[in-house]
Amino acid sequence: MKKSSFDAGLSTPSLLPDSESGAGKPEIGPTGRPMPYLPEPPPLTEHGPALVLAMCNQKGGVGKTTTTINLGAALAELGRKVLLVDFDPQGSLSVGLGFNPHELDLSIYNLLMQDDVDLEDVVCKTNVNSMDLLPSNIDLSAAEVQLVGEVAREQTLARVLTPAMSDYDVIIIDCQPSLGLLTINALTAAHGVIVPLACEYFALRGVALLKDTIDKVSTRLNPRLRIVGVLGTMYDGRTLHGREVLQTLVDGWTDTVFHTVIRRTVKFSDSTVAGEPILSYASSSPGAQAYRQLAREVWARCHAE
Question: What is the pLDDT of residues 64-97, one digit of tens each?
Fold first, then answer.
């Protein structure tokens, strides 16, 4: 079985700027840095073992669910088999893919708390080829209380996802907007963390606490855990405020910030109402192209030699 590059720790990929790839002078991206060369990854001859990514930020409304849906769809377009895990009792990820959380017979809650429920009993096919979903609903809120008395409570999610590791190439966990036990479970199960951050002043507050939590989980529970990148979302380059916040983000997190930036557009809201990713709803839109670029950047970072 082939190993993920996370087995040796996340490294920075050797990405060629456009000038070195024969495309002339490199373009300066919205982060103020030269845009790297991001080729499509080669086709896979087999699936697994899965790379597990946690989409995490304790602040709500920063684009976690939107990024989970569209990054997953973009990776599926690249020939990767993807499993999305809705780990938020609000069930926004499930809704965003056209499922009604109130009509679910089984959810991630049953998989966590009932020994007689298997992964294949809960997994749902989505309308996106090669992308499946572990749905969630309000029942999951009870798991946080019930898990408190369990042995190895922080490893519960990692344990139930084990059967999926050999069947998928990427597993993306959409975390709830808190740093409670469910989020700790997601960080313990993950190889890497993606931190979506809206390009607004209030979104910058609390990021230090998130990093401290990630560092503690890495030290005490999951030594392989790394921050893959910080993603600027809801960016409006027409406003001075948006540009200043993005620059502050780059100044503080340097190369951890993705070169890809997700700009604000109403198409994201429209695609959510339609219950599908923006990649199928508005395939040629700037938002869809941005997530395709992000997929290539994430894959390059996670599989750098």
Answer: 999 999 999 999 999 999 999 999 999 999 999 9
Count Cβ neighbours within 10 Å for each residue of 128-155 and write b for 16 or more, e otherwise: bebbbbbbbbebbeebbeebeeeeebbb
- For residue 236, how many other CB atoms are within 10 A of its CB? 14
**Cα–chain center distance at 199:** 18
What would the pLDDT profile of 171-185 be if each residue is shown by its tens digit? Answer: 999 999 988 899 999
Q: What angle do CA 209, 109, 178 make, to 5 degrees?
A: 15
Cβ atoms of 158 and 152 closer than 8 Å: no
CA dist 61 and 184 (Å) reads 20
The CATH number assigned to the domain holding 109 equals 3.40.50.300
Residue 108: inside a domain: yes
At 267, which amino acid appears?
A: K
pTM: 0.90
Amino acid letter for position 245:
V
- Domain, as residue range, for 145: 43-302
The pair of structure tokens assigned to 167 is: 């069947």
Question: Are the beta carbons of 175 and 56 closer than 8 angstroms?
Answer: yes
